[in-house]
Amino acid sequence: MKNIGIDLFVGIVSSCVNTMVGYPMDFIKTRMQLQQSKQGTMQSIIKIIQMEGINALYRGVSIQLLNSVFAGSIYFTTYEQIRRQFEKYNNLPMNSYLPLYQTFLAGSTAGICSDLFAIPFEYTKIQSQKQEILKGQKVRGPLFILFETIRKQGIKQIYKGSLLQVIRDFVGCGSFFLAHSETLHFFTPAGKSRNEASQTGIFVASIAAGFGYWVISYPLDIIKTRYQVDNQNALNVAKQIYLQGGVLQFYKGFKITVLRSVFVNIFQLYTYENLRRACYKYA
């Protein structure tokens, strides 16, 4: 129980750090994915600030903080618990490095489990931003949209796009933790555990994790985002995206997403690894 308590605490704290640091860039990324124009990243940022003010970049952050508390705690706790089961199966001491496929499976499972909470929160965030794009429509907060959607359309509606998100996170989260673990391993002295990786290793592994997640899963993310706001099936959404700009259109907003991911992961995973070490040392 002590291990689970530490994993939950560290997961919540690091996920909230992720949200507060990275939300503005995530806001811009979603806006770019929803817009039909070929507007660039800097143009989008300038337009949002000019039209809506700089505070708009944190509009809807409340729903993401709730997501951090629920989904974030599940995400990291599930990953650590599955890792421990693999360590026991392999007769390895705690905090050992696992075979590649086991790290990937632990990460993939963690992503899927966290989607139970993450999908409704992400759906309402996207719907909130869709309202802001539609001219003349009063902007509603994401929490209002969440409860209003459940009241009018049922709980099934807030899980629209769930299959796409589960596939995205199976691939993305598995790659995220695999890139993080293997990079950390490279910076760990031979025969030592994960807890003895250098601070440089934690820094570089944080960057690698962000690239590992988005390079593979980004096309699925943009299809999911469009699908959640359009009344057509995912295949038609994918065709529409392709017709708008070819294969590169599936990576619209990719620069701001990778920039956000690298920047945020440095804060999140640095917090996660060092807070986790401190908790096990002093708890």
TrEMBL record:
Alphabetized, the UniProt keywords read: Membrane, Repeat, Transmembrane, Transmembrane helix, Transport
This protein's record includes keyword Transcription? no
Biological processes per GO annotation: carnitine transmembrane transport; mitochondrial transport
- Placement of Solcar repeats on the sequence: 2-85, 98-186, 197-278
Residues spanning the signal sequence = none
Q: Which PROSITE patterns match?
A: SOLCAR
UniProt keyword Repeat present: yes
Q: Which GO terms describe its molecular function?
A: O-acyl-L-carnitine transmembrane transporter activity
Q: Which residue spans traverse the membrane?
A: 6-28, 56-78, 98-121, 202-220
A Pfam family matched in the record: Mito_carr
- Give a Gene Ontology cellular component term annotated to this protein: membrane
PANTHER family linked: CONGESTED-LIKE TRACHEA PROTEIN-RELATED, MITOCHONDRIAL BASIC AMINO ACIDS TRANSPORTER-RELATED
Family assignment?
Belongs to the mitochondrial carrier (TC 2.A.29) family.
What protein does this entry describe? Mitochondrial carrier protein
